[in-house]
Amino acid sequence: MNRVDNVKKAIKYVTFSVIAVSAVIIVLFIIHIVNVNNFNDEWKSVSPGSSATSVLVDIHPRGGVTDTWVKINTGLGTDLNAKIYEMDVTNNAHTYVEDWYLRINIRGNCYINNGWCGTFEIHQFNDDGSEHSQTIDLRDYKIEDVSLNYHQIDQDLLIDLRKGDYIIYHPDTNESSGEVPIKGTEEYSGTCACGVIMYSVTGDIDFSDYEMFYRLNKSIWDGTKGRLFIIAFSLIIVSFIIIGTIFLVSVHSEGKLENKEKMLKDVFSVCCNVADSRDFYSKGHSERVAGYSRMIAEKMGMDKGDCDIVYNAALLHNIGNVYVNEQILRKTGKLTGAEYAEVKTHTTRGAEVLKGITNIPLAAEAALFHHERFDGKGYPHGKKEKEIPLIARIIAVADAYDAMSNDRPYRNKLMRDKIREEFINNRGLQFDPEIVTAFLDIMGEKEL
Ligand SMILES: [Fe+2]
């Protein structure tokens, strides 16, 4: 397996891991969205008795002499004192507040005269227990439209409020008015103020009974969880960008590697053809032997890298033939002793050529030993059994098969059964028995 294959395999595992982690994060994110939506849909409330909340209400008289005054000759049998009361709503929730309203339960007789930054839904109860209500903007009304119980003193409207009555204050939800923002500040916290002018005999109004209802509009990106999801999604995006970049680079490298492999293959092919062209009967011999050798290597369980080494080395096993006299190689008659000795040198000469080429592993061994016999009666060194490199023992079987399955000057090609018989008879003599077994299996499985 080459480097590009390793990179692609690693990319595959990393991509799978990132996708698996992304899937888990997406599921958690969906759960988070549902939780945030449920949280946002829920109405919450705060009242004077509430335990600590992040949204606070404070109703108090505005300080200062000019904010307090007396109205005399009211026609109601008593003077009335007026005060401005500020209603501060503070949001420390670190998220937007919206859809809020404030209910104030009246605890004693008083009059509401004015109010700003919103409208007032005023509920009055009559002596018979019946209820009457009207929503009114105290900054902008027509006196004839007021259906509540009220008094008009001078130019002022004084709407009666008695114990049991209540007011619901609705803030101005029109953001463009800028009066009461329903959302917090940029930091999601802050204070907005609304106010009322109230009259009573003493001037002191009891505002201790109120309840504010509100909903928060939390962003899914807020809080620790939201920030963690931002980081997680950022990392996922970065991971995919890195994976994509590495993939593109590896594809590009693969293209370059394929070109190199093709060039190498062409060079090999030229070498084989040169070696095979030295006699009339060896055309295609080297490539066929290389193919059979790869089949044997695969049958023996070698991995793809080793099978490639066997194939490439086998392609060049007869390269030494280029140094042998062509007339001897093409001689159809019986060779003399000297001629046969010349032919044998193709092993040593081939090894000599290939021994310095480290990028084609085992090629020199293949060339040098492919005519050795398992019983030690081969050449050039008479090595036997496992002294002969495995690649040479493999090529010996492949070489013999190609010789037997093709016509030669001194005989016709052998039939399949005859070839099998030759291999069986020479098992342990000319050939490694284990490799013969593997090759006979191959012959039984497919047409070569
Ligand atoms: Fe040979």
What does this structure look like?
With about 450 residues, the chain is α+β, with helices and mostly antiparallel strands. It folds into 3 domains: about 1-40 and about 220-260; about 45-220, Immunoglobulin-like (Sandwich), CATH 2.60.40; about 275-445, Hypothetical protein af1432. The protein is built from 10 helices and 13 strands. It has helices at about 5-40, 225-275, 285-300, 305-315, 325-330, 335-355, 365-370, 390-405, 415-425, 435-445; strands spanning about 45, 55-60, 70, 80-90, 95-105, 110-115, 120-125, 130-135, 150-155, 155-160, 165-170, 190-200, 210-215. The strands form 2 sheets. Strands 2, 3, 4, 6, 9, 10 and 12 form a 7-stranded antiparallel sheet that branches. Strands 1-13-5-11-7-8 form a 6-stranded antiparallel sheet, covered by helices on one side. Helix 3 (about 285-300) packs antiparallel against helix 4 (about 305-315) and helix 3 (about 285-300) crosses helix 8. The protein starts with a helix and ends with a helix.
